[in-house]
């Protein structure tokens, strides 16, 4: 620990030196390149994260060697980005991207430069990168190479563009989102000129693919500071990619259970729900339909009846537009559709919910419910959390008792009904579902004898359309 409290520095003979533990594979790649007369450094996010005592997800290497020279030195390589000077070197089952020092030309697609020019200068290569904290390089022999002040910005906890922020954001508009995402992940602030340029160029995000936008927002949401989503609103980004949120921020909730606007309630909920993508996206979108479900009674109190259905529908559209996989879309929309369930009917209602969303999803629903409660008026929090705890206890009893809430757990099957003389068809399916509903009300009735003895009653109720 250095005198100024930074954990990544140590004192040696009065000088502050930098030491980073590099994986053996990275050390070998750097060593082989250097043995053949080339420069090579770990670069970018792996250096940044190592200096912050965070575990890097990937280790990237930059080198003065040309791509063909890199390929000639290693037995197994993959041309993952050869047009931009990147070769993936395989070390066992792991791949490490090795990129030749380069200077980028003009960007035409807001992502890739139209052409690249190779250089022998590491500082010139670092100048093309997005933020100063990502523009540092390191190797064991030379130590830290930081011509752009990345270490100082780490100390100050700021996100600052390399050079002109306008130029960096014009090259790749996604960097606007990345600036806020990094600030959320690291707990840093965005430097004023960088923030100003982001606000000015926010409309250029329209050029960016939905997949890339989705990935950045997800990283922000699952960070330690998901409430930094507010920065996207203040920068005008949500108006471009999620305009519902702007309306949510402006929609009040004149009801005793709430003390925030819909948007502020959403931000508060993000801060207390679990950090998985499904839970964080559920929290973000769970009330996105409220502004369109609001009704005000004669006393001025607002009501949002049916907002869970409206929110689930809008959430499905938003998630689809952001190119989420079908499984994530289904999980999030199911949780949103059920998030207002209070289970006042006890175990019967819980069994019906389990039938619809499954055993694995129910604990997530309880977590959403608890987080929702914690983001409301504190006066009602204890009452809401007790209700959540009761639902959890009943759920655990249902599992422990082996209660039936699915057709495959029903004591009779379609085959049993055929043997009893019923013809296959819609009536048979309706009867099985009516049996299941009765069993969910009273698990003791889940016996073959009872269900078959009442077969005519179930069939008659279906044929006449009346309730039992």
Keywords:
single chain; 468 residues; alpha+beta; 7-stranded mixed sheet; two-stranded antiparallel ribbon; 23 helices; 15 strands; 48% helix; elongated; disordered N terminus
Task: Give the SSE layout.
Elements: E1 9-12, E2 15-18, H1 24-35, E3 40-43, H2 45-51, E4 60-63, H3 67-73, E5 77-81, E6 86-91, E7 94-100, E8 102-104, E9 116-118, H4 122-126, E10 137-139, E11 143-145, H5 150-156, E12 158-159, H6 165-171, H7 174-186, E13 189-190, H8 192-200, H9 210-221, H10 229-234, H11 238-241, H12 243-250, H13 262-270, H14 277-285, E14 295-296, E15 302-303, H15 307-321, H16 326-338, H17 347-357, H18 362-374, H19 381-401, H20 414-419, H21 426-441, H22 448-453, H23 455-464
Parallel strand pairs: 4-7, 12-13
Antiparallel strand pairs: 1-2, 3-4, 3-10, 5-6, 6-7, 8-9, 10-11, 14-15
Mean pLDDT over the full residue set:
91
Briefly note the structural class of the backbone. alpha+beta
Poorly predicted parts: 1-17
Shape: elongated
Cα separation of the termini: 74 Å
Question: Major sheet: order of its strands?
Answer: 5-6-7-4-3-10-11
Strand content: 5-15%
Helix content: 40-55%
**What does the main sheet amount to?**
7 strands, mixed
Helical segment count: 23
